[in-house]
Write a structure and sequence with these properties.
Elements: E1 10-13, E2 19-22, E3 26-28, E4 34-36, E5 41-44
Antiparallel strand pairs: 1-2, 2-5, 3-4
Bound molecules: FE2/S2 (inorganic) cluster.
The site of FE2/S2 (inorganic) cluster (FES) has 12 residues, from loops.
């Protein structure tokens, strides 16, 4: 498989979990604050229950579906 070009982030939606972003440089939250991304892959909370929004902190695992 050819190496991929990460000019644009890759997005992976985890079932009942976060959205994984690979290759992103920043994330803007719901209040318009811009968070710099300093890791190759980050997990964004989709359940809105994380104590570290916009990042996933694993809380989605204990929320009843
Ligand atoms: S998706 Fe993981 S804490 Fe919200």
């Amino acid at each position: 498989m050819k190496d991929r070009d990460f000019d644009h982030p890759d997005v992976v939606l985890v079932p009942h979990g976060p959205m994984l972003l690979r290759g992103a440089e920043s994330v803007q939250d719901l209040e318009g604050r811009v968070h710099t991304v300093d890791r190759p892959v980050v997990a964004l909370c989709r359940c809105e229950k994380s104590s570290r929004l916009p990042w996933c902190d694993g809380t989605h695992k204990v929320i009843p579906r």
